[in-house]
């Protein structure tokens, strides 16, 4: 005990703002259920597994830890199933899925000698007892991040909060034993912040929840705000406040004042109810996506190093499928596993390793590749009776890689292609452009576009890319006769495909070679401005590669826009061979006898590209009483998007010091996020800025401008002769032969890349393996013809 007292200065009592980790190790995927349990640093509140807590002690000197250990409870084999009261899985009152129940035990451990003291114990210093109790009752940081991601968007302060009128009724709310004023409900209760009445919440579709008394009271009185009782704690921002007029969960900046009006001391209240977001999260993350791929197949589960599944965090299959394939490539294995230990990554990490991308990638790499977590669990899969593994949850990795990104930090489904771009960009920036540390470099290659105008002169435009995005030429289908017969039969019987079985439907089959040929085939550019002719003409563009990457990623453009900008997914099969050869796609650069187009951009193009306010928008705004000049600026600065967008801009910029200054037609600064988007497409930053300035900040117009004005980027490269052009070695790009072997497929189910489900198939040790979230097994029928992304590895001679 004296040893603990001598280290009391290193014990901290958590504040509501502290992030407390108590469910998962920051360096590994150890949990309280792991053999050594989990150790919570009572100074930083970071958690560490048994094998890693000494590393934290060596780095920080923090000696006092809360040890949390969970052990399975013994359950009789003939235990009766509980009758469900909720149509949900994994929540109180829901269906009993026979999950093991665990018993928690705690102790205080002092390092470096792992001296253990029992908890709870009245002999412990009061500071330690308070600190530990606070940690145990707090919502863990892992859970907070998950709930915050599920809500997708930050809650906004209610427009009614600052002007809320509270009735002086003398009502004092007791700290517990609440009941609805109009029925006997004692759960899901809401306190109206105007008159202090306690009423039950909305009735769910399945009859659970409440009796709608709270919302009916709002309709009768118009009193706008209510707070859910049981969610009020010292962390007021976490309280569930609902605005009926705004029909959303909101923040109440004056909640402490509004609660005090009814005698509520928020600092002493405990959390007893789930917030709306937490309940939605629990019901959605328990849906079993794992049964929708290769269902009906007898998949043989596989375990060991490199065969670890990833737990679906709720619509995170796009991340799981992408990361499984990336950690099957040599650069990722080397960088984040074989050549970097967890100890080394932790030593290089900042004070909070949960916020370091390198640390979390190393943690993920060791989790996937070590085999430590790829072991059969005691219980078998309820659906297949097969041995299964739990998989590892990539929460910390997702949190850090998605930080600052509105979509990836949400719990919504995302496009696996967009995530691949985002991750590679993060890696390149995070490694300070050092090729020896940048594992994304193995996917990079050079693209060269050659344009010949009618004058016979040429221009070359070069850029880097990491994806070869291919159109699918349906006219090259190899089963045209079968397609025609199927369509005739379908028309004759008046059938729709959604009323037919999958086996009956005939889909086009297009060879991958035809997609590659379409990419490299000549393309006409109409209204191309020729600096040689000083006028518009028709030009021919061809595209080739200046280097061949170590790993080639092919993106099949299955999602196209129909008339009216309606997205449609092409229902098509792509015949993909195991080995491809793209040697014929290598570009040759400037050839002897070719003459380059003169430098410069058409003056008329730059003049016509100056942003001009839409007169219809301006006139509508002026009719509302706004100043003409202000209206023109609003239209220009919102790219003529519409009256509503321009109005919002006006309200936000009324007090700008230059609001009355004349409109300048000189190039203005462009939005950095738009620049970053164009850079992610492979364009140079200077070219991206020039294009955005010339197109009023519109990304789509800027992209067209770049393709129609390739000379704009001539200054970024030396194309005066084929011999003076930079080689791949000089630009740091990998290069080699053009033969590649297929080793990975990301396939997608669903009508849009932002919904449905993603699954990875990977060729490992001579056999195809399916990675379907936490489910890993030998694939009996890999969907080679249904891929969305195809991953190839170069075959060097």
Explained architecture:
A hairpin with a 4-residue loop joins strand 4 and strand 5 (115-119). Strands 11, 14, 18, 22, 23, 24, 25, 26 and 27 form a 9-stranded mixed beta sheet that branches. Strands 2-1-3-4-5 form a 5-stranded antiparallel beta sheet, with no helix packed on it. Helix content is 27%, strand content 18%. The longest helix has 15 residues, at 416-430. Helix 10 runs antiparallel to helix 11 (357-369). It has 797 residues and is α+β, with helices and mostly antiparallel strands.
Brief rundown of the structure:
By secondary structure, this protein is of the alpha+beta class. It is 27% helix and 18% strand. The protein starts with a helix and ends with a strand.
Task: Pick out its properties.
single chain, 797 residues, alpha+beta, 5-stranded antiparallel beta sheet, 27 strands, 18% strand, globular
Q: Main beta sheet, described?
A: 9 strands, mixed
Distance between the termini: 68 Å
Strand content: 15-25%
Q: In which range does the helix fraction lie?
A: 25-40%
Helix run count: 23
Which residue ranges are poorly predicted, with pLDDT under 50 across at least 5 consecutive positions?
83-97, 149-153, 280-293, 602-609, 713-725
Report the average pLDDT across residues. 82
User: What's the β-strand tally?
Assistant: 27
Estimated structural class: alpha+beta
Query: Whole-number radius of gyration?
Result: 31 Å
Shape: globular
Domain USP: 308-795
Keywords: Hydrolase, Metal-binding, Protease, Repeat, Thiol protease, Ubl conjugation pathway, Zinc, Zinc-finger
Function: Recognizes and hydrolyzes the peptide bond at the C-terminal Gly of ubiquitin. Involved in the processing of poly-ubiquitin precursors as well as that of ubiquitinated proteins.
Protein name: Ubiquitin carboxyl-terminal hydrolase
